[in-house]
Design brief:
With 501 residues, this protein is an alpha/beta fold. The protein contains 18 helices and 23 strands. 39% of the residues lie in helices and 22% in strands. Strand 6 and strand 7 form a beta hairpin.
Length: 501
């Protein structure tokens, strides 16, 4: 299938109850290329409140039949979806090109997202046997079976930065758990997520996967506050996460919230700092133009290695090529939208005005394009005042402050001195020391000698503490988030055959 490869703007629809359909009154909105903001990429359907209501009701109607399937039966369907997502090489290529045009990230990252989504479906399917096992508690006084059951229609809200990867952290898990879903992709990156989701939805019974796109201001509360919504899984900012929680509370709908992070990395005196380590440090901070919740956002370096880290990381950053993500030489694309560019540049300007040493690095082969698009070169801030926003707030862009430390206890305190608690990293050659320090960090995930998506094990639960969120995605735990426990008790020796009377 060819997807907008002839330059014709792509038009995507809603998908409700097994049918692709336009939004009410045929409303759409435009999506442009962040590398070339004057270039129209396509139009996405702009759902109304009635459209959103119809999607939730369709998911609610489809729930009993989907929940009645065994884990093995659902697993077989998820494995087939995984095959469908990548079996047509031309389709994968076309979606990756369109994804780069609407999002901005370089093509190797869009290909990574598209391929990883199928892996996440297979991974969730592999939990079938484990999920099917109940816990038995033998009496006296009673025999009890502890099992779990799906919740119902789940609302999945996906952000713009890594929409397919984050979709893969919640959609297959919700389906494997036995729920039906309504997915709302982000407004700023809706075309390829919608096209991909329609592939998935068409492979499943009508109503199991429903898709609505459009303004969060118009349909967000309809979805999260719907009386038939039984679970909400949201990934996004802290302020919107608070709003989602308040809206869901109207019906006591449980939520999983994966929110922001201000992830610290700690480079100890004994860290191995070779070329490969500097590449990992760079990717941890600057992959996807720094627009990753789990990105390295504060780097604390032992004083004895500070100059070495500054030199090595600067060299890697200087070698990057900033430009249109479709160009083969580009290693960093633009930020996704003007608003985020302004946030990042505001932090850089504040740091520079404070007297901090701010260095913008990287190669810009096309200065005219750079000025036109939402570009920002990889930027390092040396010895920044911890009170600066670039240190204590989430940048969500290609800028990294690097700070010195002398004492381990002090650096752990600095790392934990944040309202966030998503991810962190320790860089050292001492395994026992790394584990001991990791246990002292207030974070839901700690990487050792790496950081970010390239170091993520999808079999482990992912989520944060403090204002970084509630609950977990990914792993076995990410599946059972979409279920509720159900205890079944009876007389001892009767319910559980063979237990003592």
């Amino acid at each position: 299938m060819t997807i907008g490869m002839d330059g014709t703007p792509v038009v995507t629809t809603l998908y409700i109850d097994g049918q692709a359909r336009p939004a009410q009154a045929g409303r759409t909105y435009a999506i442009t290329n962040p590398a070339r903001p004057d270039e129209l990429v396509g139009h996405a359907a702009a759902a109304s409140a009635d459209d959103a209501d119809a999607a939730v009701r369709a998911a609610h109607r489809a729930f009993p039949a989907w929940a009645a399937l065994s884990y093995g039966e659902r697993a077989a369907r998820l494995r087939r979806v995984a095959e469908l997502l990548v079996e047509d090489a031309q389709d994968v290529h076309d979606r990756s090109v369109l994804f780069t045009r609407e999002h901005g990230k370089v093509r190797r990252e869009t290909l990574l997202e598209i391929s990883r989504l199928g892996e996440r479906f297979r991974q969730s399917a592999d939990y079938a046997e484990r999920l099917a096992r109940d816990e038995h508690i033998a009496g006296p006084p009673f025999d009890t079976i502890v099992t779990r059951q799906p919740r119902g229609a789940a609302i999945l809200i996906v952000p713009w930065n890594w929409p397919l990867a984050i979709l893969g952290a919640k959609l297959p898990q919700a389906l494997m758990a036995g729920n039906t879903v309504v997915v709302k992709p982000a407004e700023n990156s809706a075309l390829v997520p919608t096209i991909t989701l329609q592939r998935i939805a068409a492979a499943l019974p009508p109503g199991v996967v429903n898709i609505v796109t459009g303004s969060s201001a118009e349909i967000g509360d309809v979805l999260t506050g719907h009386p038939l919504a039984r679970f909400v899984n949201f990934t996004g900012s802290v302020p919107i996460g608070r709003h989602v929680m308040r809206t869901a509370a109207a019906h006591l709908t449980p939520v999983t919230l994966e929110l922001g992070g201000n992830d610290p990395g700690i480079v100890l005196a004994d860290a191995q700092l070779d070329e490969a380590a500097f590449q990992r440090l760079y990717l941890g901070a600057f992959m996807s133009t720094g627009q990753i919740c789990m990105a390295l956002k504060r780097l604390y370096v032992h004083r004895s290695r500070y100059d070495e880290v500054v030199s090595g990381l600067s060299a890697v950053a200087q070698a990057q090529v900033v430009g249109d993500g479709l160009l083969p030489d580009s290693t960093m694309g633009p930020l996704n939208n003007r608003k985020q560019l302004e946030v990042v540049r505001g932090m850089i300007d504040e740091a520079r005005a404070s007297g901090a040493d701010v260095v913008e690095l990287g190669q810009v082969p096309d200065p005219a394009l750079y000025a036109q698009g939402y570009f920002q070169r990889p930027t390092l801030v040396f010895d920044a005042d911890p009170r600066l926003r670039v240190v204590h707030e989430e940048q969500f862009g290609p800028v990294l402050p690097i700070l010195r430390f002398d004492d381990e206890a002090d650096v752990i305190a600095q790392a934990n001195d944040s309202p966030f608690g998503l991810c962190s990293s320790i860089w050292t050659t001492d395994r026992d020391r790394a584990i001991a320090l990791a246990r002292r960090l207030e974070a839901g995930y700690t990487y050792l000698n790496a950081h970010g998506p390239s170091a993520q094990d999808g079999r482990g639960p992912f989520g944060g503490f403090k204002q970084s969120g509630i609950g977990r995605n990914l792993g076995y735990e990410g599946v059972i988030q979409f279920q509720g426990y159900h205890a079944i008790s009876g007389p001892a020796g009767w319910l559980l055959e063979g237990s003592p009377a």
